[in-house]
From TrEMBL:
Belongs to the purine/pyrimidine phosphoribosyltransferase family. Residues 14-160 form the Phosphoribosyltransferase domain. This is Hypoxanthine phosphoribosyltransferase. Its cofactor is Mg(2+). Its main location: cytoplasm. The lineage of its organism: Bacteria, Bacillati, Bacillota, Tissierellia, Tissierellales. It comes from the Bacteria. Purine salvage pathway enzyme that catalyzes the transfer of the ribosyl-5-phosphate group from 5-phospho-alpha-D-ribose 1-diphosphate (PRPP) to the N9 position of the 6-oxopurines hypoxanthine and guanine to form the corresponding ribonucleotides IMP (inosine 5'-monophosphate) and GMP (guanosine 5'-monophosphate), with the release of PPi.
Amino acid sequence: MEGGKRQRVLFSKEEISKRVKELGDEISLEYKGKNLVIISLLRGSFIFAADLVREISIPVEIDFITISSYENDETSSGIVEIIHDLRMSIEGKDVLIVDDICDSGYTLKKVIEYLSGKNPNSISVCVMLDKPSRRKIQLKPKFIGYSIPDVFIVGYGLNYGTHYRNIPYIFTFD
Ligand SMILES: O=P(O)(O)OC[C@H]1O[C@H](OP(=O)(O)OP(=O)(O)O)[C@H](O)[C@@H]1O
Ligand code: HPA
């Protein structure tokens, strides 16, 4: 309970695990024979990315970027900052950005623009959750776990304030 609110589970641990395996299979097929680099956006994607890379059956490099826009708010400030940069070169590589959620799209837009400047061979996006109705800019992730309506989501890496990222299922507060 959060301030008297009740949790409503949208995707169980078992459903998530099945869907992540499907995404891993799709990605393995799509990137066979390519130089795949997964870039996980911290902090929100740490759990999804950790599960996803273990379902990928082809060689893959992994790096991280830390970004922030929401602070502890429920609405994007629109100002997306890169707090920690990549450690590896992505020049000539096939980059797959992995994030927990695409909401306004500001975060992914900023990261795509930023990474484009590092001359990768390609850039695509994989998100566990997509909220297309909230989009402020045009952007469609190539791989999507679940498309969801406009509800504030918590768990499986997604926070409410400073908590709940460790909850193994995805839920909302009613
Ligand atoms: O499409 P958008 O409206 O930009 O929202 C999506 C982003 O917002 C959250 O990050 P946040 O800035 O809260 O940082 P976090 O990853 O540390 O939770 C989430 O993890 C996504 O990266
Ligand atoms: O629904 C959400 N939940 C948590 N963090 C978020 N960041 C963007 N959208 C969300």
